[in-house]
């Protein structure tokens, strides 16, 4: 049994079905890339895993515990963290302060900054700065970071919450080639200690990071396997890889 198991998931909006009997088993300490044409249901699937939306039917299990009906914050506390495509950082705070805010359960960022520093914070801070490569930018205001650095900071903020499973939505969108290369290194390092699910369109990037590629089409599972298997799969080529727009 995988660390995350999705069984027969369905989601409809106003009578329109967007997720159709979708099942997925994610193995611990692997990186699963979720790919497919626009409108395939990738982001909705991420919303359902994290409790941002509720399925019409189906079941989501974290190990053997059902999390289908839990709220977003409950699911986050159980160890599922998510980074959205558009980073949500505190632009007026430094890199260090952003990471400190993320480490605490306190809702108010400013209360966090002036309260007693929780145990383990400094060690965690050093660990995350090493992973993200932001050690040299620790006192820099987040609003002045490059696009890539902002993305790495938000990955760091999610990691400060110590998730077991990390969900990333198009993490390299808008990055330079150099930033993409660094992100490949970060994610390949992270999958030694975390399970990752990554929604991505950039197939060159997918080739560098994916252990398993899951292809969605019209809300359903089209195919799953290694990147080489997916590139050779006639169904995948027809609906996704063969389309010049993708």
Description:
- The model has no long low-confidence stretch (mean pLDDT 92).
- The strands form 2 sheets. This protein has a 6-stranded mixed β-sheet with strand order 6-7-8-3-9-10, with helices on both faces. The protein has a 4-stranded antiparallel β-sheet with strand order 2-1-4-5, covered by helices on one side.
- It has 246 residues and is an alpha/beta fold.
- α3 (95-103) runs parallel beside α6 (147-159) and α5 (121-132) packs antiparallel against α6 (147-159).
- The two termini are 33 Å apart.
- It has helices at 42-50, 72-77, 95-103, 109-114, 121-132, 147-159, 177-190, 203-209, 227-232, 234-241; strands spanning 4-13, 16-26, 31-35, 57-62, 65-66, 80-83, 165-169, 195-199, 212-217, 220-225.
- The chain folds into 2 domains: 26-52 and 71-79 and 163-246, 3-Layer(aba) Sandwich (Rossmann fold), CATH 3.40.50.300; 87-162, no CATH class.
- This is Urea ABC transporter ATP-binding protein UrtD.
- It comes from Methylocella silvestris.
- Residues 4-243 form the ABC transporter domain.
- It holds the Pfam family ABC_tran.
- InterPro entries: AAA+_ATPase, ABC_AA/LPS_Transport, ABC_transporter-like_ATP-bd, ABC_transptr_urea_ATP-bd_UrtD, P-loop_NTPase.
């Amino acid at each position: 049994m995988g660390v995350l198991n999705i069984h027969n998931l369905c989601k409809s909006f106003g009578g329109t079905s967007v997720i159709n009997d979708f099942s997925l088993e994610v193995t611990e300490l692997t990186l699963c890339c979720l790919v497919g044409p626009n409108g395939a249901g990738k982001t909705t699937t991420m919303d359902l895993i994290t409790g941002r939306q509720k399925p019409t039917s189906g079941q989501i299990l974290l190990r053997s515990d059902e999390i289908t009906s839990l709220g977003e914050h409950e699911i986050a506390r159980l160890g599922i963290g998510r980074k959205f495509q558009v980073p949500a950082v505190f632009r007026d705070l430094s890199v260090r302060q952003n990471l400190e805010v993320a480490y605490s359960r306190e809702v108010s960022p400013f209360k966090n900054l002036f309260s007693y520093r929780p145990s383990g914070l400094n060690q965690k801070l050093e660990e995350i700065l090493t992973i993200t490569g932001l050690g040299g930018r620790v006192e820099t205001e987040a609003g002045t970071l490059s696009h890539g650095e902002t993305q790495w900071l938000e990955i760091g903020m999610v990691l400060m919450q110590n998730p077991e499973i990390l969900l990333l939505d198009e993490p390299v969108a808008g990055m330079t080639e150099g930033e993409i290369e660094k992100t490949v290194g970060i994610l390949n390092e992270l999958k030694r200690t975390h399970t990752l699910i990554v929604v991505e369109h950039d197939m060159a990037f997918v080739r560098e990071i994916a252990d398993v590629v899951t292809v969605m089409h019209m809300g359903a599972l089209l195919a799953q396997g290694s990147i080489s298997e997916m590139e050779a799969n006639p169904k995948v080529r027809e609906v996704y890889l063969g389309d010049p727009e993708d």
